[in-house]
Amino acid sequence: MPEEGSGCAVRRRPYACVLRAAVVPLVAGLAICLVVCIQRLSRAQQQLPLESLGRWDLAMLSRLQDPRLYWQGGPALGRSFLRGPELDKGQLRIRRDGIYMVHIQVTLAICSSTSTSRHHHPTTLAVGICSPASRSISLLRLSFHQGCTIASQRLTPLARGDTLCTNLTGTLLPSRNTDETFFGVQWVRP
Protein backbone atom coordinates (compact mmCIF):
# COMPACT_ATOMS: atom_id res chain seq x y z
CA MET A 1 0.00 0.00 0.00
CA PRO A 2 1.42 3.41 -0.92
CA GLU A 3 2.30 5.91 1.73
CA GLU A 4 0.21 9.04 1.74
CA GLY A 5 1.83 12.19 0.36
CA SER A 6 5.07 10.57 -0.82
CA GLY A 7 4.14 10.01 -4.48
CA CYS A 8 6.13 6.76 -4.53
CA ALA A 9 4.91 3.24 -4.15
CA VAL A 10 6.96 1.75 -1.34
CA ARG A 11 6.05 -1.86 -2.04
CA ARG A 12 6.88 -1.91 -5.77
CA ARG A 13 10.31 -0.30 -5.89
CA PRO A 14 11.58 1.41 -2.83
CA TYR A 15 14.64 2.70 -4.74
CA ALA A 16 12.68 4.33 -7.65
CA CYS A 17 12.37 7.69 -5.88
CA VAL A 18 16.09 7.70 -5.14
CA LEU A 19 16.88 6.87 -8.77
CA ARG A 20 14.57 9.59 -10.08
CA ALA A 21 16.03 12.10 -7.66
CA ALA A 22 19.60 11.24 -8.75
CA VAL A 23 19.22 10.60 -12.50
CA VAL A 24 17.26 13.73 -13.44
CA PRO A 25 19.85 16.19 -12.02
CA LEU A 26 22.68 14.06 -13.42
CA VAL A 27 21.25 14.15 -16.97
CA ALA A 28 20.50 17.87 -16.67
CA GLY A 29 24.05 18.52 -15.44
CA LEU A 30 25.56 16.54 -18.33
CA ALA A 31 23.43 18.45 -20.83
CA ILE A 32 24.54 21.79 -19.36
CA CYS A 33 28.21 20.70 -19.42
CA LEU A 34 27.86 19.61 -23.04
CA VAL A 35 26.37 22.96 -24.08
CA VAL A 36 29.08 24.91 -22.22
CA CYS A 37 31.88 22.79 -23.74
CA ILE A 38 30.51 23.22 -27.28
CA GLN A 39 30.25 27.00 -26.82
CA ARG A 40 33.82 27.25 -25.50
CA LEU A 41 35.15 25.08 -28.33
CA SER A 42 33.41 27.14 -31.01
CA ARG A 43 34.70 30.39 -29.46
CA ALA A 44 38.23 28.99 -29.32
CA GLN A 45 38.08 27.94 -32.98
CA GLN A 46 36.85 31.39 -34.03
CA GLN A 47 39.80 33.03 -32.28
CA LEU A 48 42.50 30.86 -33.90
CA PRO A 49 44.91 32.94 -35.97
CA LEU A 50 45.67 31.81 -39.52
CA GLU A 51 49.18 30.76 -38.48
CA SER A 52 47.81 28.15 -36.07
CA LEU A 53 46.14 26.30 -38.94
CA GLY A 54 49.43 24.62 -39.77
CA ARG A 55 47.91 21.81 -41.78
CA TRP A 56 46.35 24.20 -44.32
CA ASP A 57 48.26 25.55 -47.28
CA LEU A 58 46.57 28.72 -48.51
CA ALA A 59 47.34 31.52 -50.90
CA MET A 60 45.27 34.50 -52.02
CA LEU A 61 47.27 36.67 -54.37
CA SER A 62 46.86 40.01 -56.05
CA ARG A 63 48.29 40.95 -59.42
CA LEU A 64 51.63 42.72 -59.71
CA GLN A 65 51.38 46.16 -61.26
CA ASP A 66 52.56 45.18 -64.73
CA PRO A 67 50.69 44.02 -67.84
CA ARG A 68 51.45 40.32 -67.31
CA LEU A 69 49.55 38.06 -64.92
CA TYR A 70 52.25 37.77 -62.27
CA TRP A 71 51.18 37.61 -58.65
CA GLN A 72 52.21 38.92 -55.24
CA GLY A 73 51.05 38.14 -51.72
CA GLY A 74 51.60 39.29 -48.18
CA PRO A 75 50.06 41.21 -45.28
CA ALA A 76 51.35 44.56 -46.53
CA LEU A 77 49.17 44.15 -49.61
CA GLY A 78 45.85 44.08 -47.78
CA ARG A 79 43.75 40.98 -48.26
CA SER A 80 46.37 38.87 -50.01
CA PHE A 81 48.34 36.26 -48.10
CA LEU A 82 50.61 33.30 -48.58
CA ARG A 83 50.67 30.35 -46.14
CA GLY A 84 52.51 27.26 -47.36
CA PRO A 85 52.98 27.80 -51.09
CA GLU A 86 55.65 30.24 -52.24
CA LEU A 87 56.07 32.75 -55.02
CA ASP A 88 58.77 32.30 -57.65
CA LYS A 89 59.07 35.28 -60.01
CA GLY A 90 55.35 36.04 -59.68
CA GLN A 91 54.22 32.43 -60.11
CA LEU A 92 52.87 30.16 -57.38
CA ARG A 93 54.93 27.09 -56.36
CA ILE A 94 53.29 24.30 -54.35
CA ARG A 95 55.23 22.94 -51.39
CA ARG A 96 53.03 19.97 -50.37
CA ASP A 97 51.33 17.18 -52.33
CA GLY A 98 47.56 17.07 -52.19
CA ILE A 99 44.23 17.98 -53.67
CA TYR A 100 43.91 21.76 -54.02
CA MET A 101 41.07 24.11 -54.85
CA VAL A 102 42.48 26.48 -57.49
CA HIS A 103 40.49 29.67 -58.03
CA ILE A 104 40.95 32.73 -60.19
CA GLN A 105 39.03 35.82 -61.18
CA VAL A 106 40.18 38.27 -63.84
CA THR A 107 38.46 41.47 -64.91
CA LEU A 108 39.68 43.19 -68.03
CA ALA A 109 40.66 46.85 -67.76
CA ILE A 110 38.96 49.33 -70.09
CA CYS A 111 36.50 46.75 -71.30
CA SER A 112 33.01 46.66 -72.69
CA SER A 113 31.06 43.72 -74.05
CA THR A 114 31.65 45.02 -77.60
CA SER A 115 35.42 45.22 -77.12
CA THR A 116 35.65 41.52 -76.26
CA SER A 117 33.42 40.39 -79.14
CA ARG A 118 35.11 42.61 -81.80
CA HIS A 119 38.37 40.68 -81.84
CA HIS A 120 38.80 37.72 -84.19
CA HIS A 121 40.76 35.96 -81.46
CA PRO A 122 38.89 36.46 -78.18
CA THR A 123 40.81 37.14 -75.01
CA THR A 124 41.45 33.89 -73.14
CA LEU A 125 42.65 33.14 -69.62
CA ALA A 126 44.67 29.99 -69.00
CA VAL A 127 45.87 28.50 -65.70
CA GLY A 128 48.24 25.57 -65.77
CA ILE A 129 51.18 23.75 -64.29
CA CYS A 130 54.16 25.21 -66.15
CA SER A 131 56.95 23.42 -64.31
CA PRO A 132 58.34 20.89 -63.89
CA ALA A 133 58.06 20.25 -67.63
CA SER A 134 57.15 16.60 -67.06
CA ARG A 135 53.91 17.69 -65.32
CA SER A 136 53.09 20.62 -67.62
CA ILE A 137 49.33 20.70 -68.26
CA SER A 138 46.50 23.18 -68.67
CA LEU A 139 44.12 23.22 -65.70
CA LEU A 140 41.69 25.93 -66.82
CA ARG A 141 41.14 27.66 -70.16
CA LEU A 142 38.39 30.27 -70.20
CA SER A 143 37.29 32.69 -72.88
CA PHE A 144 35.83 36.10 -72.09
CA HIS A 145 33.46 35.84 -75.12
CA GLN A 146 31.21 38.87 -74.58
CA GLY A 147 32.02 39.66 -70.98
CA CYS A 148 34.65 41.61 -69.10
CA THR A 149 35.04 39.31 -66.06
CA ILE A 150 35.55 35.59 -65.72
CA ALA A 151 35.91 33.54 -62.56
CA SER A 152 36.44 29.84 -62.09
CA GLN A 153 37.62 27.25 -59.62
CA ARG A 154 38.40 23.56 -59.69
CA LEU A 155 39.75 20.78 -57.54
CA THR A 156 42.98 19.36 -58.86
CA PRO A 157 45.84 17.19 -57.58
CA LEU A 158 49.08 19.13 -57.26
CA ALA A 159 52.51 17.85 -56.29
CA ARG A 160 55.34 19.44 -54.36
CA GLY A 161 57.33 21.60 -56.76
CA ASP A 162 54.48 22.23 -59.20
CA THR A 163 54.55 25.86 -60.34
CA LEU A 164 51.23 27.33 -61.41
CA CYS A 165 51.26 29.99 -64.08
CA THR A 166 48.55 32.14 -65.57
CA ASN A 167 48.39 33.58 -69.04
CA LEU A 168 46.08 36.09 -70.68
CA THR A 169 46.03 35.96 -74.47
CA GLY A 170 44.72 38.82 -76.59
CA THR A 171 45.28 42.54 -76.60
CA LEU A 172 43.18 43.50 -73.55
CA LEU A 173 44.90 43.97 -70.17
CA PRO A 174 43.76 42.80 -66.72
CA SER A 175 42.38 45.26 -64.19
CA ARG A 176 44.77 46.54 -61.51
CA ASN A 177 42.00 46.48 -58.90
CA THR A 178 42.69 43.69 -56.37
CA ASP A 179 38.94 43.21 -55.82
CA GLU A 180 38.52 42.40 -59.50
CA THR A 181 41.61 40.34 -60.34
CA PHE A 182 42.96 37.69 -57.94
CA PHE A 183 44.29 34.13 -57.86
CA GLY A 184 44.61 31.55 -55.11
CA VAL A 185 44.82 27.96 -53.96
CA GLN A 186 43.64 26.09 -50.89
CA TRP A 187 44.90 22.67 -49.85
CA VAL A 188 41.88 20.41 -49.30
CA ARG A 189 43.30 16.98 -48.52
CA PRO A 190 46.33 14.74 -49.07
Secondary-structure class: alpha+beta
Rg from Cα? 29 Å
Intertermini distance? 69 Å
- Binned strand content: 35-45%
The main sheet comes to: 6 strands, antiparallel
What is the averaged pLDDT score? 78
- Fraction of residues in H or I helices: 10-25%
Count of alpha and pi helical runs: 2
Q: Would you give the CATH topology of one domain?
A: Jelly Rolls
Topology:
Elements: H1 16-46, E1 58-63, E2 71-72, E3 81-83, E4 86-88, E5 91-93, E6 98-107, H2 113-118, E7 124-131, E8 137-143, E9 149-158, E10 163-169, E11 182-189
Antiparallel strand pairs: 1-2, 1-3, 1-11, 4-5, 5-10, 6-9, 6-11, 7-8, 7-10
In brief:
19% of the residues lie in helices and 35% in strands.
What does this structure look like?
The protein has a domain at 66-189: Jelly Rolls. The chain has helices at 16-46, 113-118, and strands at residues 58-63, 71-72, 81-83, 86-88, 91-93, 98-107, 124-131, 137-143, 149-158, 163-169, 182-189. Strands 1, 2, 3, 6, 9 and 11 form a six-stranded antiparallel sheet that branches. It has a five-stranded antiparallel sheet with strand order 4-5-10-7-8, with no helix packed on it. The protein is an alpha+beta fold and 190 residues long. Residues 42-188 form the THD domain. It is found in: Cell membrane. The chain crosses the membrane at residues 18-38. GO terms for molecular function: receptor ligand activity; tumor necrosis factor receptor binding.
